[in-house]
Amino acid sequence: MYPEQLVKPMKAEMTQVGFEDLTSADVVDKTIRESKGTLLVFVNSVCGCAAGTARPGVVLSLNNAKKPAKLATVFAGFDNEAVAAARNFMAPYPPSSPSVALFKDGKLVHFIERHHIEGKSAEMIAQNLKLAYDHFC
After folding, report:
1. Is 49 a catalytic residue?
2. If DSSP codes are grouped into helix, strand and coil, which group holds residue 113?
3. How far apart are CA 116 and CA 119, in angstroms?
4. How far is CA 25 from CA 22, 44, 101, in A?
5. Which of 50, 61, 62, 82 could join 54 in a cystine, given CB atoms 3.0 to 4.6 angstroms apart?
6. Which one is catalytic: 47, 62, 108, 124?
7. How does DSSP classify residue 6?
């Protein structure tokens, strides 16, 4: 488990732009099950691809005419129960961090795995998400 002083600024990058930090399995379960409309869940991480492209790409994706009604995040390697609960909703995809899941009315409709993030620019990740927003939001 990563130390809080390391994780705190990485969490803040997302909460400062409107993401709700989900820290328990119960909150994750309730948030996803009861979501109406679209919900974006970002599985945050300390890895370089999270810092270099995933977080910036997710934030950049929000500059779009259509976007998710609700934004949430969990942090891999820190809020382990919350991440495990979120991953239950992301099946059949294997655990992946960072990753980005778009839900509509509690059902997974779009997913970006780590291997779709590694080696990609923030702009490419944002474009992928914007296309999903245009289709589902």
Report:
1. yes
2. coil
3. 8
4. 8, 16, 17
5. 50
6. 47
7. H
Strand order in the sheet with 99-104: 20-21, 70-75, 38-44, 99-104, 107-112
Nearest to 55 by CA among 110, 108, 97, 6: 97
CA-to-CA dists, residue 4 to 12, 64, 67, angstroms: 12, 32, 30
How far is residue 38's CA from residue 121's CA, in Å, rounded to a whole number? 24
94 within 8 A of 85, measured Cβ to Cβ? no
User: Structural domains in the chain?
Assistant: 4-136 (3.40.30.10)
Element (H, E) at 80: helix 80-89
Q: What is the pLDDT of residue 15?
A: 97
pLDDT digits (tens, 9 = 90+) for 45-59: 998 889 999 999 999
Q: How far apart are CA 67 and CA 55, in angstroms?
A: 16
Is the pLDDT assigned to residue 2 strictly greater than 90?
Answer: no
Q: Is 137 annotated as catalytic?
A: no
Contact at 8 Å (CB) between 11 and 75? Answer: yes
Distance of CA 66 to the CA centre of its chain: 17
pTM: 0.96
